[in-house]
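Quick one - inputs below.
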Amino acid sequence: MSILVLGSISFDAIETPFSKVDKILGGSAVYTSLAASYFTKQSHSKLNLVGVVGGDFLKSDIALLQQHGVNTAGLQIKQNEKSFFWKGRYHYDMNKRDTLVVASNVMEKFDPMIPPSYQDCEFLILGSLSPSIQKQVINRLNKRPRLIVMDTIDYWIDRAWDTVMKVIQTVDILSINEAEARKIAQEYMLAKAAQKILAMGPRYLVIKKGAHGALLFDKNHTFYAPAFPLKDMTDPTGAGDAFTGGLVGHLVRCASISFEDMKVGVMIGSAIASFCVEKFGPEKLIHLTQEAINKRIQQLVALVQFKKELSGSYLS
Amino acid sequence: MSILVLGSISFDAIETPFSKVDKILGGSAVYTSLAASYFTKQSHSKLNLVGVVGGDFLKSDIALLQQHGVNTAGLQIKQNEKSFFWKGRYHYDMNKRDTLVVASNVMEKFDPMIPPSYQDCEFLILGSLSPSIQKQVINRLNKRPRLIVMDTIDYWIDRAWDTVMKVIQTVDILSINEAEARKIAQEYMLAKAAQKILAMGPRYLVIKKGAHGALLFDKNHTFYAPAFPLKDMTDPTGAGDAFTGGLVGHLVRCASISFEDMKVGVMIGSAIASFCVEKFGPEKLIHLTQEAINKRIQQLVALVQFKKELSGSYLS
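Output:
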């Protein structure tokens, strides 16, 4: 099996009500790859990165990805340019953030390059970046991957509506947050928004609700994955991308991808996302262990399990 | 078995982004009683109301409560006074509301009266009203009920901190929303806030998160009940009170009240609350059927059930 991860690779500056960092490894491709790596390693799957950085990018950060089994053959390094930079500030309610600086830099003219060894990919993750680039990567693959997962953000929905809509039509899973779902569907109620979005093309829709968990929809079913009730939270950056990494990391194991597989996938995604927010940037994702992941999954499962049967005729 | 429900009984005026009503039956005791009535009827339990209304209160509304099996022997009618009136406005995010008018009227000098036939109550629900009145009712019972459930709101936490704290120390279950939990614990993270609140006295804490479900805590366990993803929502007024009615309606059936019983109880509470918000005021709660309740419970259970086992060693 082989996963191709397309996404941004950046330096981030992050402020929260409690602390801040000025320059830290970030970007959707980084969070997604690191999260997925714990699952691909175990299933002996390839994890192929497509992205671009500037000459200022740290060799140690590339080495870090490689140590996690990420193939960087598709990572372009533009020596005379600067890496993508994002600065954001979170409020007490960390579901909300202000973007303070976006310096596209090397992303401005990003022309994604697909190495021949990537062409056999069965899973394609279109991390959040320009929908034109997401589309280009689909077009540059000789055959359609078995599963295409797309993430996008407000920024692109506002600036590139038509292209976002075109990409949505071609993917299997759309993974977005509450506000994005409402914007795309132009509908406030999520259960209604979900059906509108599914009618656009995707087979599955994941609506991430931060500290409130995630909803999974297909045309006939709904599932709810809780968020782990953390005692401390440091930085929500990348949690949604880590979620996708965990979800797809699970799906790689599945022969065919049913709603039941998706249910387990969003539980895994939620577990991995809960680690992500515990430290600044991808710090926590870098140092996970199988034991810690297994324990968190069990805690998440316990959160929604009850022994007593609520039978079909509770009142009779 | 016998439940005593103390709470407000009011006329409400409600505005939402989509519609409004000028005068509708409301109050915590009304929502809680109506919700509980479907369960007490089935378990042949008594449902005893304690409250006060003015001479302007409608005989038809009293008859309505009685038709639902609510004993109104403890309902005082002050002919020369006006009933409690509340006016509120909801935003698109209906988890947030502004209180526009609070006219205490007859509630100002409410001196709760406990009919002798109420003295054997095993379950006491202290609906949201002045904590002094909540305390008075506990004191006026000859023996402590088997279970005391307390709800309170921002308004009382801000204005009667010391008394709220005193009542909290004496109850078994505290049922509040996210903002109230953070205010009482003076702690933002809910998992930490919960432990602080449990250390104050209650055996169980329910934190209601509106459209995001509810968290249940004891000192060693956490459980998450999802909210039903509704396609339409009309008016969230009283949903939290209906939740408590459903929860206690279930607990009446339980021989001893374990965490497992509480899990089922919060699922039932969430199911009933999801009905409440579908129409203005208590309209939907008035016309529920056993069939509709059973179906909603099943839908809620299905929302968090998955077939595939996430075993203790998912990664190995």
